[in-house]
């Protein structure tokens, strides 16, 4: 009997083909009655596979006498409730012994004469939809197939079929021995007390739908824990519904779930939300896809022409539990929520995706991010009630902003300004076949005063959306990137009137006239970005109000007039000035700059062509904490600007990427007294000669970036003078194997925190010396698999005890590299750039890996990836 129970545990733990073969072999030995050696064999398999790890959870459905016992915190600020390492009572202890580590399979005919069989049959009858609910199905013609769910009802991973045998729940008080092998048709995870006041189950790694709430309980390392149902959820769930939900978590979608009563629908989705569910397969997606018809039935008001009633008190008070349904609402739309920036993202699906998560993000505010194509797909589906449901769920939250881009790429997210600004061609805007306001029509009914940001990019703005935007009186940020606005002149002339609280205005890639500048009388405006814009108007009629409170002015790659620049440079509050790529030879008629602002926190003159007037201004007592002079035309201009004593006393960060730098200029740079960061990447001069020059820099350097230069290993010796260096980027500098010997100096072993050595050749000793960097937290590296394999043979695994971010470039991710990733104790973020991932390499097959993969960010070629979704 004990052998059979161990076999049952092993069967419940099957995760791959290899384990299946082990199970069949053990089953064969058991049938031949080979004695205690079989027990040892099976137990050894369970130990080696680490599959017997589980926690027994006992849920009490009695009302709490002490209100203070109620859980007040969710698992992310988790404090385990009253847990019991000792035996709770003799009944629980008996059940725990009888079920061994994991729960049994109970035969439907096990307790044929047991009173509980009769009770459960009565329960099945109660679960059937009432007459009112069935009539709704007939009147509304709702069915699973009518919502395109026929493809999801029977998943490949689901073990419960159409006519599944109902699960029986064992009476804890029953003294009969459990026979685990009588019937294996239906899997059972619950031990149900006769009084219906206790539900006991084992939370296993084999659950198809996982619960982060239960996993937090498992981390307490208790074998069993006792909770009151109010510790888990505040919903009015009873033990029978709870049992059904736990069985669904273990086995996936259960067709018997279709018999839930109307009033139980909210309780079920509330419980699923509180359990913080996720899945390593498509099980959670299938569950919500199949529950989708119920939400329409639940919200339909039969007394009012079968219209959806979103003023239902349940929906109004519990709208957050309905949010997961928008993930499965449209087969052609991929919906995600980014908790970091609070964006609800709608983009068209490029491939079939079935991943959703019910993680609680404490969502109160959202920013809608969507593409024109996604808007069109929603309208083209032509399903009115889906659209109504989408509107009401989205509009249940406080909408703080709207972002629409033709390709889901936004100007403000591109860090490379040269890439962001170039090229902007004619006819790049897309005419949408619909509008945002048509799809999200309920947004006109909500409090629009709460919308504070609008960002439209590469689209033709319809009249409907134009009128919608004009009504946003409390708008604080307006970004229009290469948009086509039919009423642009009227729109620009009405800026100050319609948006009195505007703080940030970014008009990118537009033609600007006098009407725009004459209506910039916005006292609240702090940021003005006119990059890639061109001024076309009669200068005689130009008039721009004084910008007293302007703090940031950007005219990258723009063609402005001298009067416009003069107006902005007079702002006493100006702190950030970016004039990248401006041809100043076009600007004439400047008379003086006596009152111009000459002190900046950030000054960018990269790729500028400076005429004499501007060269004189930027060479006379300029103060800039951050100075960007990338690809500046003319080394004489560079020397003249950098020779200012005011800059040498004020500049902490200097960038000369792509510029012509000679030994004399490096001599000037060595005089910068408080310089902490120097970027000399992609220089035009022979960098080896420059770096080997006998110039001693002050020890203030914290960051050094000579990437994309051709360096020899010996040229790295110049960095030994920087004993505070925390960041070093020597990527793509063609270093040969052995270069780490020049970096692992006594001072740098302690100081280096961030290093990029990708694009260089490594030998095993180089990889070993990376582990010597005591405080290394950020590593970017290319790993050759043969070299890394040789390293493992010589030195063993690489462990960086403080590493938090690992970025692998052009690396084949095999088993060795995977082990490198999961062996870093403090790792929080992994990014794979242009990497090849071997098939099934991140499939989780043991109980130790899920602990590592929790709460970590994975990015593959710019796209976030959840490795727990194997």
Give a description of the structure.
- By secondary structure, the protein is an alpha/beta fold.
- The protein has a 22-stranded mixed β-sheet. Strands 2-3-1-5 form a four-stranded mixed β-sheet.
- Strand 31, helix 30 (785-795) and strand 32 form a beta-alpha-beta unit.
- The two termini are 36 Å apart.
- Mean pLDDT is 76; it is low at 4-10, 13-18, 46-52, 65-188, 844-851 and 866-870.
Helical content (DSSP H or I, runs of 4+): 25-40%
User: How far apart, in Å, are the first and last alpha carbons?
Assistant: 36 Å
Strand proportion, as a percent range, falls in: 15-25%
Shape: flat
Give the assembly state of these chains. Answer: single chain
Helix- and strand-based class? alpha/beta
Count helical runs: 32
Could you tell me the mean pLDDT?
76
Please tell me how large the radius of gyration is.
33 Å
Q: pLDDT under 50 segments (min length 5)? A: 4-10, 13-18, 46-52, 65-188, 844-851, 866-870
Sheet having the most strands: 22 strands, mixed
The overall strand count is 37
What is this structure's SSE topology?
Elements: H1 2-12, H2 17-31, H3 36-49, E1 54-60, H4 90-98, H5 115-127, H6 131-140, E2 190-192, E3 198-204, E4 209-211, H7 212-218, E5 224-228, H8 229-232, H9 239-251, H10 265-274, E6 277-279, H11 283-299, E7 300-301, E8 307-308, H12 313-317, H13 325-328, E9 333-338, E10 343-348, E11 365-370, H14 372-381, H15 384-394, E12 398-405, H16 417-421, E13 430-431, H17 436-439, E14 453-457, E15 459-461, H18 463-470, E16 477-481, E17 484-485, H19 488-493, H20 495-498, E18 504-508, E19 511-512, H21 514-518, E20 527-529, E21 534-535, E22 552-554, H22 562-569, E23 576-578, E24 599-604, H23 612-617, E25 623-628, H24 635-642, H25 645-650, E26 653-655, H26 663-669, E27 677-679, H27 687-691, E28 703-705, E29 727-729, H28 746-751, E30 754-756, H29 764-770, E31 778-781, H30 785-795, E32 805-809, E33 812-813, H31 815-822, E34 829-833, E35 836-837, H32 849-853, E36 857-860, E37 863-865
Parallel strand pairs: 1-5, 10-11, 11-12, 12-14, 13-15, 14-16, 15-17, 16-18, 18-20, 19-21, 20-22, 22-23, 23-24, 24-25, 25-26, 26-27, 27-28, 28-29, 29-30, 30-31, 31-32, 32-34, 33-35, 34-36
Antiparallel strand pairs: 1-3, 2-3, 4-6, 7-8, 9-10, 36-37
Helix pairs in contact: 1-2, 1-3, 2-3, 24-26, 29-30
């Amino acid at each position: 009997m004990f052998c059979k129970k161990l076999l049952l545990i092993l069967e419940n733990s099957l995760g791959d083909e290899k384990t299946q073969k082990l199970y069949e072999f053990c089953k064969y030995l058991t049938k031949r009655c080979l004695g205690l050696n079989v027990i040892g064999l099976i137990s050894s398999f369970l130990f080696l596979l680490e599959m017997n790890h589980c926690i027994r959870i006992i849920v009490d459905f009695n009302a709490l006498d002490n209100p203070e016992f109620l859980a007040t915190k969710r698992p992310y600020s988790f404090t385990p409730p009253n847990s019991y390492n000792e035996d709770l009572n003799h009944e629980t202890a008996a059940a725990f012994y009888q079920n061994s580590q994991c729960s049994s399979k109970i035969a439907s005919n096990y307790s044929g004469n047991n009173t509980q069989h009769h009770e459960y049959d009565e329960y099945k009858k109660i679960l059937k939809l009432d007459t009112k609910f069935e009539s709704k199905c007939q009147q509304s013609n709702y069915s699973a197939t009518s919502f395109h769910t026929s493809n999801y009802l029977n998943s490949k991973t689901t073990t419960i079929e159409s006519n599944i045998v109902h699960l029986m729940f064992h009476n804890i008080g029953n003294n009969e021995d459990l026979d685990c092998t009588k019937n294996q048709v239906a899997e059972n995870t619950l031990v149900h007390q006769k009084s219906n006041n206790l539900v006991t189950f084992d939370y296993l790694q084999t659950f198809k739908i996982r619960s982060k709430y239960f996993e937090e309980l498992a981390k307490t390392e208790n074998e069993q824990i006792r909770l009151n149902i109010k510790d888990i959820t505040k919903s009015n769930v009873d033990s029978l519904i709870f049992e059904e939900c736990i069985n669904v978590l273990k086995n996936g979608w259960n067709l018997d779930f279709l018999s839930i009563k109307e009033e139980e629908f909210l309780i079920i989705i509330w419980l699923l939300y509180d359990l913080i569910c996720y899945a390593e397969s498509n099980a959670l997606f299938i569950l919500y896809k199949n529950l989708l018809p119920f939400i329409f039935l639940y919200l339909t008001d039969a007394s009012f022409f079968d219209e959806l009633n979103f003023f239902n008190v349940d929906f109004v008070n519990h709208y957050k539990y309905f949010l997961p349904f928008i993930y499965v609402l449209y087969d052609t739309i991929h919906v995600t929520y980014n908790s970091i920036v609070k964006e609800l993202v709608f983009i068209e699906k490029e491939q079939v995706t079935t991943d959703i998560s019910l993680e609680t993000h404490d969502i109160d505010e959202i920013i809608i991010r969507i593409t024109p194509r996604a808007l069109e797909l929603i309208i083209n589906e032509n399903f009115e009630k889906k659209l109504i449901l989408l509107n009401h769920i989205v509009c249940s939250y406080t909408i703080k902003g709207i972002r629409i881009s033709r390709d889901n790429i936004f100007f403000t997210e591109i860090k490379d300004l040269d890439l962001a600004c170039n090229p902007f061609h004619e006819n790049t805007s897309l005419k949408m076949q619909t509008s945002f306001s048509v799809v999200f029509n309920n947004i006109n009914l909500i409090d629009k005063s709460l919308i504070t940001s609008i960002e439209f990019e590469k689209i033709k703005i319809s009249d409907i959306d134009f009128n919608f935007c004009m009504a946003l009186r409390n708008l604080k940020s307006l970004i229009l990137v290469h948009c086509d606005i039919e009423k642009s002149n009227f729109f620009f002339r009405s800026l100050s009137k319609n948006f009195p609280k505007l703080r940030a205005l970014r008009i990118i890639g537009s033609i600007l006239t006098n009407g725009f500048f004459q209506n910039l009388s916005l006292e609240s405006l702090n940021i003005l970005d006119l990059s890639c814009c061109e001024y076309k108007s009669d200068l005689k009629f130009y008039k721009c109000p004084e910008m007293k409170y302007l703090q940031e002015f950007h005219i990258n790659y723009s063609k402005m007039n001298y009067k416009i620049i003069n107006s902005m440079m007079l702002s006493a509050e100006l702190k950030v000035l970016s004039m990248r790529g401006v041809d100043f030879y076009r600007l004439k008629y400047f008379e003086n700059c006596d009152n111009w602002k000459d002190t900046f926190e950030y000054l960018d003159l990269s790729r500028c062509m400076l005429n004499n007037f501007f060269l004189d201004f930027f060479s006379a007592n300029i103060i800039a904490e951050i100075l960007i002079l990338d690809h500046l035309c003319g080394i004489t201009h560079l020397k003249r600007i950098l020779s200012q004593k005011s800059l040498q006393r004020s500049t902490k960060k200097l960038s000369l990427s792509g510029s012509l730098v000679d030994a004399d200029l490096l001599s000037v740079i060595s005089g910068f007294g408080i310089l902490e960061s120097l970027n000399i990447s992609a220089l035009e001069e022979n960098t080896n000669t420059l770096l080997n020059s006998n110039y001693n820099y002050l020890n203030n350097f914290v960051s050094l970036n000579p990437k994309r230069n051709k360096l020899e290993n010996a040229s790295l010796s110049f960095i030994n003078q920087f004993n505070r260096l925390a960041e070093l980027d020597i990527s793509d500098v063609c270093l040969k194997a052995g270069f780490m010997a020049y970096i692992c100096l006594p001072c740098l072993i302690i100081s280096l925190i961030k290093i990029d050595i990708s694009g260089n050749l490594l030998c095993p000793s180089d990889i070993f010396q990376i582990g010597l960097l005591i405080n290394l937290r950020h590593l970017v590296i290319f790993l050759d698999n043969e070299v890394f394999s040789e390293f493992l043979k010589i030195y063993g695994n690489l462990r960086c005890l403080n590493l938090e971010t690992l970025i692998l470039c052009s690396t084949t991710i095999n088993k060795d590299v995977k082990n490198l990733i999961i062996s870093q104790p403090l790792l929080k973020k992994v990014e794979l750039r242009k990497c090849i991932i071997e098939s099934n390499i991140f499939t989780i097959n043991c109980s130790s890996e899920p602990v590592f993969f929790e709460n970590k960010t994975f990015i593959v070629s710019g796209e976030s990836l959840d490795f727990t979704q194997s």
